[in-house]
Amino acid sequence: MKRAALTFLLLLLFPLVALADGDKLCDGSNEIVAVVDGTPITYQDVVGKLDLAIEVRTMRQVRRIPDSVTDKEIERAIVYSQIEVFIVNRLLLNEAHKVRVDANVRDSDVRAIIRQERMQKGIADGDEIAWANYLQEKYSLTPSEYRDRKRTDVIQQQMIYLMAGGQGNVPTE
Description:
By secondary structure, this protein is mostly helical. About 65% of the residues lie in helices and about 5% in strands. The longest helix is centred in the middle third of the chain and has 28 residues, at about 70-100. About 5% of the residues are buried.
């Protein structure tokens, strides 16, 4: 009984001990960097869209950043520069959902766009392996992830067209 009580007590105290050394845990991975329509955007949400290792190397070479600047500092600057793009995209998707633009995008439309891209790249319609390899090499995505990403792009493009007055006045709530 004492052993079970001691184990339970240690389990309860473990989070406090882990958080006591904040420098080691505070890498920004769960830091909320913005809130859009009540939904938090975390550092990790933005990082998930970037290949930071390549971005940091490129930034060092192109901008000739001195070695005294750490990779973490460069990474943080890149992420914060991408936040604006991430917020605008999130706002576009939220607005598209409000005015039901996303309901107008059919799966057949997205498949047709992808089919056209495959033809431009010279990948046959039934060659799923070549398409999957291409997407993995180019974007590090699976075909279903790419389809979801392409659907999001189409929704955003339609929302921008709608907001620009392409279909008359924007409906109000």
